[in-house]
């Protein structure tokens, strides 16, 4: 006859409960999983399924009473660890969003904004296109599978109960500067091309003041901007692949993984 003590029950609950919170914290910010078009029920069921499958294979969690105050603090701790890991990956989407915003401003499309009610934000149309392109490229590179593997590996590198403040939080802060740097680096070729166009129309305005530069410059700037983006797209997949690898490596290093 199977007999379960209170200690055994608490151990079984902890085996599933703590991984669920860390995985759910990551899903709250990770690309694709955190999108507003993915229902919260789907995220909850997926996190429960992964925690149920991986929980018995993970290191034994600390013996904590699930109904105690310390268990509540441990749950918030696991949610925070998962959120920090998901935050690093979410910067991949923000890089392309900022890239599209920079290019839209240079092309004169800054007013062309699309409302995204699912996520509660407004995106430039070009930025939304690049975000969709980056998400599909992330899936094509199996980035979602690698990120889930890193998330499961984090339970070995940073076991439950190891704390949050001992993590390299400064690295997460530095990644925000890395986000702006990557977006600017990919935008520089198109921005410089548009700058030369604006300088050319400025010279034309001085050389022929009677010429209506504004009516001629806007469509020309837009056409040349689209041509510059077309050229930039030829090197975008390779560069974005390197950025995805850097983000996944940073996600691994956050929980003590090797570079």
UniProtKB/TrEMBL annotation:
Membrane disposition: Multi-pass membrane protein
Subcellular location: Cell membrane; Bacterial flagellum basal body
UniProt keyword terms in alphabetical order: Bacterial flagellum, Cell membrane, Cell projection, Cilium, Flagellum, Membrane, Transmembrane, Transmembrane helix
Residues of the signal peptide: none
Main location: membrane
Transmembrane residue ranges: 12-33, 40-59, 79-99, 120-139, 177-201, 213-233
Annotated InterPro entries: FliR, T3SS_IM_R
Coiled-coil regions, chain positions: none
Superkingdom per UniProt: Bacteria
Short name of one Pfam family: Bac_export_1
Family designation: Belongs to the FliR/MopE/SpaR family.
Role this protein plays: Role in flagellar biosynthesis.
PANTHER family from the UniProt entry: FLAGELLAR BIOSYNTHETIC PROTEIN FLIR
Protein name per its UniProtKB record: Flagellar biosynthetic protein FliR
């Amino acid at each position: 006859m199977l007999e379960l003590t209170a200690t055994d029950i608490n151990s079984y609950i902890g085996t599933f409960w703590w991984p669920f919170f860390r995985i759910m914290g990551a899903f709250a910010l990770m690309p694709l999983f955190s999108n507003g078009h993915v229902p919260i029920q789907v995220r909850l069921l997926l996190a429960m399924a992964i925690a149920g499958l991986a929980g018995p294979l993970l290191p034994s969690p600390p013996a904590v009473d699930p109904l105690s105050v310390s268990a509540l603090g441990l749950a918030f701790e696991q949610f925070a660890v998962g959120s920090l890991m998901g935050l690093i990956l979410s910067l991949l989407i923000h890089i392309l969003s900022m890239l599209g915003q920079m290019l839209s401003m240079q092309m004169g499309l800054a007013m062309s904004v699309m409302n995204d009610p699912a996520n509660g934000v407004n995106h430039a149309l070009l930025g939304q296109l690049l975000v969709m392109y980056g998400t599909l490229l992330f899936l094509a590179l199996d980035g979602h599978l690698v990120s889930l593997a890193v998330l499961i590996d984090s339970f070995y590198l940073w076991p439950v109960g190891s704390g949050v403040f001992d993590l390299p939080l400064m690295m997460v802060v530095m990644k925000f500067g890395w986000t702006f740097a990557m977006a600017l680096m990919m935008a520089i070729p198109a921005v410089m091309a548009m700058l030369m166009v604006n300088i050319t129309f400025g010279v034309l305005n001085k050389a022929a003041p009677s010429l209506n530069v504004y009516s001629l410059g806007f469509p020309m700037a837009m056409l040349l901007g689209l041509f510059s983006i077309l050229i930039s797209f030829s090197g975008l997949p390779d560069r974005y692949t390197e950025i995805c690898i850097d983000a996944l490596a940073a996600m691994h290093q956050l929980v003590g993984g090797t570079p």
